[in-house]
Amino acid sequence: MKIKSKILTHEKPIINIEICDQYDPKSILTEKNIDIKNKEFEEIKSHILSTDGMVLIDTQMCFSEPQTEIFEINEECVVMDFISCSNIETKIDQLEAEKYLRENTHNIFYTTNFKAAYKIPAFEQVNYLAIIFSKAFYHNLINENWKLHEKFSKNILFKKSGYLTSKYIPFTPSIQWVISEIKNCGRKGALKKMFIETKVKELLIHQLEASTIQEQQKDHIDEEEYIKLNEAKLILEKDYVHAPTLPELSRMISLNEFKLKKGFKICFGTTVKSYIIKLRMERAKYLFQNKTITVSEVAYKCGYKDVSHFSAAFKNFYGFTPQKFKINLDAIRI
User: Fold this and answer.
1) Over the stretch 215-251, which tens digit does the pLDDT of each residue have?
2) Which among 252, 225, 233, 245 has a CA at the least distance from the CA of 173?
3) In the chain, where are the structural domains located?
4) CA–CA gap between residue 206 and residue 212 (Å, rounded)
5) DSSP class of residue 100?
6) Which residues contact 116 (CB under 8 A, 6 or more apart)?
7) The 3-state secondary structure of 276-301, one letter per residue
8) Does the domain at residues 2-217 carry the CATH identifier 2.60.120.10?
């Protein structure tokens, strides 16, 4: 399988790699970092992990002038696609894609010969994570006959390009957390390969789960209301430390409180309040990786003025106090 990414105005491709299509559990994981800065306000960074049958590409780009990226994969493949940017116009051969990428959304697609053009506006921060599998590697992750992805599996069987879901759907906190774990993995060699493959399978589980929930929601929420609810979710994710009250959030998205409360629960499987707590607790867990940080500092950074309220919320969420969590974490480090 050959994978190539090129900016039309650049002479050389950003990415130009080739991997074996077959899954081999004994193959090594290789890493490559790309860091291009041609002039002020023009930067490309890409971190690539590859092994037989799988390539993981984490890319950030920003340009001072509009650009077009051409991305090609020369053989049939399955791609787990995670988009953290918007306003990028897309044109993809064989696939009926949405015209513009939407921030914090994901999907899975199969194609026999992928070729896409992405039109990038000036000063737009591009950020995407693509995990590309050969068919053999994908079927090592999930049985091709499982009903979890029956329609998608048939597309692969009959070599028909298509998406797992008709539209890209919003990130869940679980998906965001696993992506963060992958990007911040400090392991090396065989341990890193084992970790990455485990986390990739975990991501697939969360994507299949999210797509199932999406299908169940179609009968309950109309498109306009669904867009507003996703807007509410993004507002909370961007500032859960100083999260708006329910009436404030209702006004911000122009949706009454009843529909906000009911719709949020249907769409995301949790209440607004519980979602804020979840975001804060996941942030707290990340902050505690710094062994010098205090419980009071973490509480403040997560939006709690009272340490006792934070400790109670932490214990309720994780099952043990922040102090015990820090002790356990220090023991693991030793």
Assistant:
1) 655 556 777 888 899 899 999 999 999 999 999 999 9
2) 233
3) 2-217, 221-269, 286-334
4) 10
5) B
6) 70, 71, 72, 90, 91, 92, 93, 97
7) HHHHHHHHHHHHCCCCCCCHHHHHHH
8) yes
